[in-house]
User: Fold Ferric reductase-like transmembrane domain-containing protein from Aliisedimentitalea scapharcae.
Amino acid sequence: MKRFFEATSPYFTWAVLASLGVMMTFTALTSDDPRVFHQLVHPSGETSARLLIVLMMATPLAMLLKGWRGPQWLKRNRRYLGVASFGYALLHTIFYLLDKASLTIVVDELPRLYIWTGWVAFIIFVPLALTSMDYLVRKMGTWWKWLQRWTYAAAVLTLVHWAALNDWNGAAPALIHFGPLIALEAYRIWYWYLRPRPTVA
Assistant:
């Protein structure tokens, strides 16, 4: 396992992250089912949310499991996971628009909670993904880290977007998926701000 984490190349990582998206795109382009776009909306969105959860779990997991290579590997590859999450969010948006096939319907649905939260989360994702290149990370300096903190807002909006689906019937699966992240972030807050610290004599 140690050798796996040390030897995994970025190309292999990208191939794994992109594989499901390639299959979804191939299905969308070749299927004769008139509801194919509707059927792909949810899997693409769920994949985006799962990748978002995994990348956000990296730091608290590394804190909790000190010395374990898995969390360290996740930390090193957070940008890959973030860009992949955006890629699936983009597919999710494209499939949604193709499924509705009407600008009027899309605009009419905007006031719904589970719709506008998804759009705002996607809009937040855009600058996060566009600034993920090494050049821009160096160029932006500390501003890049400030921008990346908006990931938390995107995560909250994604949770609401998922939970509010079908008159909140999506709440259970959304909380099951986001539950580990919420617990780890609670641990992170406790560790940095609330845990008892030894008094200095």
User: Anything to note?
Assistant: The chain has a mean pLDDT of 90. The first helix runs from residue 2 to 7. DSSP finds twelve helices and no strands in the chain.
